[in-house]
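Handout, section B. The chain below has 204 residues.
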Amino acid sequence: KDRCIVTGSANMIEKIGIPYDLTITIMGVFVVSFAATSLDTATRLQRYIISELSTAWKMPAFSKKHPATIIAVGTALALAFYNGSGKGALILWPLFGSVNQLLAGLALLVITVYLARKKIQISYTMIPMVFMLFITGWAMLINLNKFFITSDWLLLFIGLAVFLLEIWMVVESTLVLKKLNGEKTVNFKQLSVKGSGVQTPVKK
């Protein structure tokens, strides 16, 4: 597949007068650079996630930089050679669609909490967030049922872990939004008590 990208791009660029041998080298460098950047970004993000989960679960030994990185790289290596051919990561392909959209829903969730903290209208992000989380959660449940029926335990375990983490984030965010709404109500009542009766308190 990568060869098709490099060759196809080189053929197109050649049409504008750049030699084919040069363009195929340039495109090869671009593809390798993109792959290396993706690996670096994925490793860093996984390390941050492991560190934060370890801190939340009272496991300080794994929250440090080097242990978290070793776990991130080690699990990726184990997955890559899961089937012995070095293409073990392709096993996760059936989860890609639902997990990809789930990330979009969680991004909207984070933005919603941020806007609520800034006392900005949240309906613009909350409505699409609820829709995306509901649909992707439903799709994940369908996939989990299919993986269980086909005894695909690896996908079942990873999909279940992702689904439980989604629920955890939704619950935590709901508690934060509830707390922020409570603070807003308390502030409004305090303003009402302090008012002289002539002034009308403005609800934040």
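Note. The chain has two domains: 1-80, 92-204. Compare this with the example in section A.
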